[in-house]
Amino acid sequence: MKKIFIILPLFLSGFLFSQKKPQKKPVKKTTVAKFNYHDEFRRISDEVMTNGTAYENLGELTKGIGSRFSATPGYMKAVEWTEKKLKSIGIDMIWRMEAKAPVWIRGKESLQIKAANGDWTNIRMLSFGNSEGTGGKDLTGEIVLISSTSELNAMSIKQLKDKIVFVNLPMDPKIINTNDSYLITAKSKLISASVIAKTGAKALIIRSLTTAMDDTPHAKMVYYEPDDKIRIPALSIGVKSADELEKLLKSQKVTAKLNMTAQSKGDTTNPNIIAEIQGKKDSKVIVLGAQLDSWDFGEGAIDDGTGVAQCIEVLRTFKALGIENNHTIRVVLYANSENGGQGREMYAAYVKKKEEKHVFALGTDAGGYSPRGFSLDMPPQRRRQIFEWKNYFLPYGIYDFDQTEAIQDISPLKKLDIPLAELVVDTQRYFDYHHSEQDTFDKVNKRELLLGAVAMTQLIFMIDKNW
Fold first, then answer.
1. How far apart are the C-alpha atoms of 455 and 458, rounded to whole Å?
2. Angle between helices 306-321 and 73-88 (to 10 degrees)
3. Which residues contact 454 (CB under 8 A, 6 or more apart)?
4. Percent of the chain, pLDDT > 70?
5. How far apart are CA 196 and CA 198, in angstroms?
6. What pTM does this model have?
7. Does 5 score more than 70 pLDDT?
8. What's the pLDDT score for residue 371?
9. 419 and 379 in contact (C-beta within 8 Å)?
């Protein structure tokens, strides 16, 4: 990316010399700001907090449509709803961009355990997204508990062959940023179906990645390696069941019986939805991104219906206030974010092929909770420019500009040297509901959702006027 330097003209005053008059000091000419940014921020905030429709839109999307899993009728209903909603706020430029999506059907699934000579007991479960099933047949085996990578490495093939591996690995409560805690746990080799399969084990059970202390299972995506000779089924169970199972395993032998009809049926296509307000000055693009798809259960409210509603709200606010944007303000609502990520890859490929100049990309995928700031994944000089705007954001509770990670749906744009940012929110409750049937509309607070839309609109406004 070419670096852009803005050079301010210097005006030098002449000096008048006279034997009768004393020398005058040069008069400094000051540059008058074109905008009173404090007033513009207040105008944006007043509009969103008074007339914002993000919460009502989220209700329509989640309660009216519900689950929007890739390659299902629910996703296409969401596509049609989104297009109608964008047209209703006066957006003329709307189009679809087809992206590959795997066809995966969860089907029926069950998990039972039995200790010693006891009876079979049902355990709530969720298979990993895109997981192999058991062909509808019972898969039975002794459960082996593993708690660390060192413990896994110390075990022999004989100890794990034909066993069902159970990993009870909690998110670290000492890590205050729950996003960091989640990512650290999610990247563990212990919960990789490919790693576990190489030990000779025939299934993987993990403790759900959640901060909640309940028994609701939370889904995860499975990634099989291309060279996997055997792809084993993988599933998660709730926290309470996980802790009870570990306690049981420490005193006696436990057998599991797993039955999953999950199956993959090749690929199809699902569209990204793209909408924009064209720039009045040039065709450079400022893009906002959120995922339109959700898991195949729950309502996909915090993940990521809130982001969809906020992106639409930014466009609505620009239109309602008659803001003359210099650059094109574009929203991309991504397909297949949950079980593949093809939508984001397709958009990045499109930008590269078209050689479109993107000034900035902003993502929102954190649940619509109270906004705290923006994570800035960009060159230092760009970060410094945004730091200079802190005082404008402080009255709205936006103070955190120190983080440097961008969310997955806009992350492919980093390869194209596009500055990235992510809306940072208070995430302490996010992983209570993330990837579970508890992800429903009632978990979202209207005021928090709108405040996030305010902050996003304000940042987009500043980028448009200054970059």
1. 5
2. 20
3. 44, 45, 48, 49, 371, 396
4. 93
5. 5
6. 0.89
7. no
8. 98
9. yes
